Amino acid sequence: MTETLATIDTPAALIESTRMQRNIQRMQRHMNELGVRFRPHVKTSKCIEVAKAQRDAGALGITVSTLKEVEQFFAEGFTDILYAVGMAPHRLPHALELRRRGCALGILTDSVASARAIVEFGRASGEAFDVLIEVDTDGHRSGIKPEEDALIEVGRVLHEGGMRLGGVLTHAGSSYELDTPEALKAMAEQERSACVRAAQRLGGAGLPCPVVSVGSTPTALAADALDGVTEVRAGVYVFFDLVMRNIGVCTEDDIALSVLTTVIGHQADKGWAIVDAGWMAMSRDRGTQKQKWDFGYGQICDAQGRVLDGYVLSGANQEHGILSREGEADADIAARFPVGTRLRILPNHACATGAQFPEYHALSDDGSLRAWGRFHGW
Length: 378
Ligand SMILES: Cc1ncc(COP(=O)(O)O)c(C=O)c1O
Description:
12 helices; binds pyridoxal-5'-phosphate; alpha/beta; 378 residues; Lyase, Ornithine Decarboxylase, Chain A, domain 1; TIM Barrel; 17 strands; eight-stranded parallel β-sheet
């Protein structure tokens, strides 16, 4: 029997194919207009079918956050892969093995200690690793600041140690704290100019720096000029989510990932409907809590995906979700959402919600569903 939205077990992670394609086209078009190569971060979906759709639209290479992703995507024919998390020395033998099997795997460092470990291991095994230096352009996370002496020192250690110094990479994650077009544009420019500055300093020191790689979904979409940048990375744009909606780079109608859930009971006096999607389905991510609109654990939609304004998943236990109306309690909740009603919930953070599920169900406009696998673990 072919599954439909009415028969499939819940909770289930749905991908609206048309919306996803629209999101992919939007980003790729913008990158083409800016004249830069686009390397999507596939940690959002960890799904072959999604990455293939990004590649078909024009993406060149992929970015990953674990060597498990490298394994899985390489097995499916993706060869140009950037592992964009600082390299831990104990992972070098695995990285070497992947390269020996033909994977063009790039790795990342932001310290002299880790650069030395890469050089030592590379020399001992006769491998010239492709290495990017992570640059900190917003004080958000890891990386070397463009003006720090360590930038040149790391470059020298790698280059003189016989590794292939690929260039610089940054991720302006603090763009997630912004919510106006002006602030996003300014952050995109800060990300660009600081990363280009790091590249210029390496060049000035006589070191190679062919790649200047920047990106987060908000800055990628806000950028209107990327002079000096060779490559952009973005991940969550493929699905979007409520955090991105609050930042202002999408609307609810762009969100391609949702959780299909079933009403299992009520606390009518409190104005609650109980659904079978708790935090095990939605994740614990409360990313909208500090933003301009708090959606609880998610925005409620009907089974067709139409937003039901004011209804949110206000609470979540492991397998129970509490659906309620913001403001005044809904006295008719039991009649509005009888037991057995199917609803959809838009997630706060698509990467976190997707990660709760072993597979997605890709929903076509004709209502048909296809199962797409999803990787887990490291
Ligand atoms: C190194 C790196 N590049 C790119 C991204 C993509 O960011 P986003 O999901 O905002 O598109 C991330 C996300 O955390 C990242 O860590």
